[in-house]
Amino acid sequence: MASKREHIEVEHVTGLNSLRIIREQERQENMSPNNKTKTLLREASHQVIAGGSAGLVEICLMHPLDVVKTRFQLQRGTSDPNSYRSLGHCFSTIFRNEGVYGFYKGILPPILAETPKRAVKFLTFEQYKKALSFTSMSPGLALSVAGLGSGLTEALVVNPFEVVKVSLQANRDSFKEQPSTFGQARRIIQEDGFGLRGLNKGLTSTLGRHGIFNMIYFGFYFNVKDAIPASQDPRLEFLRKFAIGLTSGTISSCVNIPFDVAKSRIQGPQPVPGEIKYRSCFQSMALVYHEEGYLALYKGLVPKIMRLGPGGAVMLLVYEYVSGWLQKHW
Questions:
Q1: pLDDT-derived band at 6, boundaries 50, 70, 90
Q2: At 251, is the pLDDT very low, low, confident or very high (cuts 50, 70, 90)?
Q3: What does pTM read for this prediction?
């Protein structure tokens, strides 16, 4: 009996050792460089696809408001003979003179830019957030700093597309008469090149606009979302996230709009052809303030909020749901 019992105990110990060996091998395999690379690539691809999807949906829904916002920002006071009296007057004038397609002027550059732009936005935010988690920075502050970093990186990618978009949106000819997106880009390159006077003019204003927006946008959304308990009801949970995203986009738009106005003035047509009046970010802000008053720095705020309030909520929700679907199915 003793011999049989000893034999069973030996088999049990051997079995445990084999199980430990198998688990250790699995752990080592999971920690191998190849698997780490595959995991990182899978995460990055999820962020790229989800971010691109979020941007595409947002731009298709909200672009008409971006056209209206840019038109208001390009106005130089009541002395401008083409000035719009109100938001309704702007909508009706564009529709009457330029048709329904007038609201989609300049949409191709942001569509072409949306996948890399939003991919960069969300991918870099996640990577900056991951890197900052190893610092002593508080989680709330780290989210805002990660947002700032993602905004600055995003601005470098998107600025050339913004230059083409604004120049097309400033054109008040009918949709059929205006130049094509590629024709406009070619004209800018031929006349002014790729530098800070050509396809990359207004870069400082774009850095300020995107950096400040993303800092508040991501910092506010994720901090408040974590502070407010989630609901078990899917509809209430959707409304909770939408409300936080709407508030986040609205606050961010209110804070960064002076940079947006400066960007539009620099990238849009100058008042006198051949004479550069709006040269740099803060010079343009000071000039607008001196000539048109403080409120002129907030031109286009209403259509901007109408676009980036719900648009910001849509973008975050699409990103989260697409990202969640990809993690489950791919």
A1: very low
A2: very high
A3: 0.76
> Residues near 198 by Cβ (< 8 Å), separated by ≥ 6?
163, 188, 189, 191, 192
Q: Residue 49 is which amino acid?
A: I
Which residue in 184, 168, 181 sits closest to 112, CA to CA?
181
Section 176-199 average pLDDT? 87
Among 127-141, 142-156, 177-191, the range scoring the smallest mean pLDDT is 177-191
251-286 burial, b for 16+ CB within 10 Å, e for fewer? bbbeebbbbbbbbbbbbbeeeeeeeeebebbeebbe
Integer Cα distance of 154 and 79 in angstroms: 36
Q: Are 184 and 164 in contact (CB under 8 A)?
A: yes
Measure the CA–CA gap between 74 and 47, rounded to whole angstroms: 35
DSSP 270: -
Separation CA 276–CA 262 (nearest Å): 13
Poorest-confidence range of 13-22, 238-247, 277-286?
A: 13-22
Indicate the helix (H) or strand (E) that contains 249: helix 234-267
Q: Which of 258, 312, 236, 307 is nearest to 64 (CA)?
A: 307
| Local structure of 208: helix, strand or coil | helix
